[in-house]
Every structure is written in C-alpha cells, then in structure tokens.
Amino acid sequence: MEIRVFGFKNDDAATVVQFIAEHVRRDISFGVLPPDSRLKIEDLRQRYGGSAHSFREALTLLANEGIVEASSQRGFRVASASQADLEDVTRLRAEIEGLGLKWSMKHGAVRWEGELIAARHAVDRADRMVMDDIDALALEWDEANREFHAVLVSRCNSPRLIEFQSRLFFESRRFRFAVLKERAIEPERLKDMRNRLVDAVLARNDQQATEALERLILEPFGAPGN
Fold it and tell me: In CATH, what class is 4-78?
C-alpha cells in the first residue's frame, strides 16, 4: 500500500524525515510547540501525518541540533528556553563564530569577500521586508541571517566548527523569533553593525571584526558585547 506524507511517497524515507523535521522545527521556533513540552509520537502523527518510525528519526535529528531533548525513559521533549539558555547559546555563538571568522579571514580570498557582500545585501533587504509581514516572512528572514553568518565562517577550514556554528544558530532561532515578534529589531541599526563588520573583514582587522560580530550577535537580545 502506497502511503503519502506531505505529498511524498513512502519510498523516499529520507526526504520524509527531513520534511517532518522542518515542520516540527518551525513549530518549535514559533512557539506552537512550547519549551519543555513533551513530544508524543502519536500526538505528532495526528498533527502532521507520517509514520512513527519517521517521527523518531526526525526527532532524533532535531535532538542532534539541540532544540529537542531525548531521554531513554521519558522520550522526547522540546528543549528549554530560559534566560540562562539564551545567554548560554548567544555567548557561545559569539565565541565560536568569532574564532571561525578569524580563521576565514586568513584563508578567504576575493570570491569569499564577494559572497559576504552579497549575503549582507540579502539580509539587509530581509530586515526591511520582514517588518511588513512578520508571520509570512519570518523564515525567509531567518534564512538570510543564517546564510550571512554561515558565510562568515565558511573559509575557516574546520568542518567541525562549521557544524557547531550551524547547530548553535538553529538553537538560538526561537530567541530570534521572539525578538522579531516583539518588533524589537532595528533594521537600520543592524545594517550599521553589519557594515562595520564587513568593513573590518575587508580590511583584515581581526579585532574590529570579531568585536563587531559579537555586538551583532548579542545586542539584539539586550546583551551588548564588551
């Protein structure tokens, strides 16, 4: 019997798992699935469709990203999102991305600089547009942010650092969306901080670049960098 989940056939299991994971990830990010809530497989199947096996695989994937917690005795639950969690993930992001940026500045050439300038343009545009329709454009806005920060560390020559940076970015998504929903982001302020960051990168000024990156990561959450 052929089963379809979100329009996919059951012979495309990996795609189904990825698609389920994206839907659950989105609902966690938007608070539809609140912090610390239990993720019961049967309840999720009723909400999204799909097999129990696919959901176990998807939740395991999200657990590896840090936004879901897995326990052999209690199953799965949404990771907590306290003020302490916010401070931990943002400060760690600043440290890891700062290190990755320093390494990228040593190895990145003209092509990397062009990618960074293009990513800055895209995220500046996303900042301006998202304020007109937050619900519809939040994910597009966050993807533009993800791409900009990914480019910053993309030439660091450390796959492990890049993987960890990506995980921390996803872990902090819920906090970014909370700031966005409160309309607490300031597009012109963010644009100015990114300009300072990119200018320092192009000048190959490690200290100014990492300081600007730290401010860019921490300041939107009310924790200015040193």
Answer: mainly alpha
